[in-house]
Design a protein that fits this description.
Length: about 575
């Protein structure tokens, strides 16, 4: 989120401290659901037109629609409309109620008691209860579950025992009555409340399905949630349709339906220009031409993200720190930002977004220096061969860079990196592939269809983006040695005992200044070790037909506020 304001960055930090850290009293610490009084006031002030449909475009087709299975942005753009969470972040990262109306925190900061919406129902008409919440979070701790979200429930008392098979339930999850549930932690945890921002699943549909089989279950393509929109159909390779849920506890959506189309960025943009699509992401270099269209609005979403190159550290080249350092010095970030993104981007040296309170401005930096890059390789024993590439022990410094298609800025960045690294004697092959295919490399499965550990030959390097959804502890699943696949997202196989220690430390820090200092230390170590090379932060630019009202994308996603969209004709 590129706010460009130290004051606002401070406010975000304070908001997180108030919302994510434990309370010193037993009184309610929640904010009301944004669908209640605020929405009511808006509705009474200016009744909005109801009915009609909106078509949204995105580059990649979702992998599945179960929010607990390695959810990607392509997935959550749809699942945010179908499923609700206990809590959710507001525009300033403060956690507010969703399925939870309110909550209390015990004086010792260990027990969170949630009071749930009493009139929420599943899309098939079954009532939503505390048993659904208990089922969802207990499933995350199940040893058979391999969907990547175990870290969210790990702080709960009894979760590790249940996960290891030493207990038959999670002792810290207690259903008090149909609309009240409590979570008791083993120790105070600064990120716990934010970790509850994940879709709740229906117990009555999935209770007899082993979490090991969720990935291939029909529910993934025919989901039933409690959200403002109901799933209607999924035409593979074309679109997903959802329809308004008239019985939504937060009030019925204004639209009748929303269609999410997926396909090539140029094709989707052409469809927008033909008025077949209402909302579409736009490459930075196309914004000027879009602004000439009298029916188009352009909106830039602050997404609190960093685009980076990740390395498979099991690869013999990338296990060598000097190689990673050389590639860092050989990356001209300023050129990439100025030529590819322009005003909608900024250089990133830290893996934490520049405008977030976790960002450390004093990390180790690698200014563009081709001579320094070559010097490091030669100090490491590499020598130039007859083709102009470095080699060592008879092996040329050559690797494949996986670049997912669909986002022009990312594709252009891949081309520039190949050129820049070629100039320092590194032979890079670009592999263009769709996002879903890249995911199968980063999170591989065995012959049994289950997630397995990453191997050295699964992939070499890749370009992706990562952003803070609710709390920077989300990085733990990517850099703690405890969360390598199939237990999390550490698919680069990064392991540093000090990093593991710091991630445990930040969880226990309820003092915001102390927690910020710990994250700054985490950022510094990551900049020294370089498992990822951060390149830039980018605002995601969308264009919307002016017929669409109340479209305001931000870091939470393009469809987060879809319930409030309407059309003027």
């Amino acid at each position: 989120m590129k706010k460009g304001s130290a004051v606002l960055t401070f406010i975000l930090g304070i908001s997180m401290a108030l919302s994510a850290c434990s309370s010193s009293s037993s009184s309610s610490t929640s904010s009301p659901s944004p669908s209640s009084s605020e929405a009511a006031a808006t509705a009474s002030a200016a009744p909005a037109k109801t009915g009609g449909s909106v078509t949204v475009a995105q580059a990649s087709e979702p992998g599945n629609l179960n929010p607990l299975i390695y959810a990607t942005t392509s997935d959550t753009n749809v699942t945010h409309m179908i499923f609700d969470s206990l809590v959710q972040p507001d525009a300033e990262l403060k956690m507010v109620g969703d399925l939870a109306k309110s909550w209390d925190v015990s004086e010792d900061g260990l027990t969170y008691t949630f009071h749930l919406q009493e009139n929420a129902k599943w899309h098939d008409g079954q009532p939503f209860t505390a048993n659904d919440v208990a089922f969802t979070f207990t499933s995350m701790a199940d040893a058979r579950y391999d969907g990547g979200a175990y870290s969210r429930v790990q702080p709960v008392a009894g979760a590790e025992e249940f996960h290891s098979g030493k207990a038959d339930s999670v002792s810290g999850i207690k259903v008090i009555d149909e609309h009240t549930i409590s979570f008791t932690l083993t120790k105070p945890n600064a990120s716990f409340l934010a970790s509850l921002f994940i879709g709740v699943l229906p117990e009555h549909i999935l209770k007899d399905v082993s979490p090991a089989d969720w990935a291939k279950n029909d529910f993934n393509r025919n989901p039933i949630g409690t959200g403002p929109f109901k799933f209607v159909k999924w035409e593979t390779g074309q679109y997903i349709e959802v329809a308004a849920n008239p019985d939504y506890f937060g009030g019925a959506p204004k639209l009748d339906k929303i269609i999410t189309r997926f396909g090539d960025a140029n094709t989707m943009l052409a469809a927008f220009m033909n008025k077949e699509i209402d909302i579409v992401p736009v490459a930075a270099d196309q914004v000027a031409s879009i602004k000439t269209l009298d029916f188009a609005d352009v909106k830039a979403a602050n997404d609190l993200s960093v685009y980076y190159v990740g390395f498979n550290l099991l690869n013999p080249f990338f296990s060598d720190l000097k190689v990673r350092q050389a590639l860092s010095y050989g990356t001209d970030k300023n050129l990439i930002v100025s030529s590819v993104i322009g005003e909608y981007g900024e250089v990133s040296d830290d893996l934490f977004p520049n405008a977030h309170w976790s960002h450390n401005p004093d990390v180790t930096k690698y200014p563009y220096d081709k001579a320094k890059a070559k010097q490091l390789l030669e100090e490491d024993g590499f020598k130039l061969n007859s083709k102009g590439f470095y080699e060592k022990d008879g092996k040329e410094l050559k690797f494949s860079l996986n670049v997912p298609t669909g986002k022009p800025e990312r594709e252009k960045t891949g081309v520039l990196l190949k050129q820049q690294w070629g100039e320092i004697g590194v032979n890079v092959e670009i592999i263009s592939l769709d996002f879903s295919t890249l995911v199968t490399k980063l999170l591989p499965t065995g012959s049994d269809g289950k997630q397995r550990a990453v191997k050295a030959d699964d992939y070499d390097a890749y370009i992706l983006g990562f952003g803070v959804e609710a709390d920077p502890d989300e990085y733990r699943s990517y850099f703690s040695s405890k969360f390598m696949p199939p237990n999390g997202y550490n698919f680069v196989s990064y392991s540093n005992p000090k990093m593991d220690e710091l991630f445990e430390k930040e969880l226990s820090q309820t003092n915001q200044d102390e927690r910020t200092a710990t994250f700054h230390e985490i950022g510094k170590i990551l900049s020294d070790d370089i498992p990822w090379i951060p390149i830039y932060g980018q605002k995601t630019v969308f264009t919307a037909n002016k017929r669409v009202q109340n479209f305001n994308p931000d870091f939470r996603g393009v469809s987060f506020d879809a319930k409030d969209w309407s059309v003027s004709e």
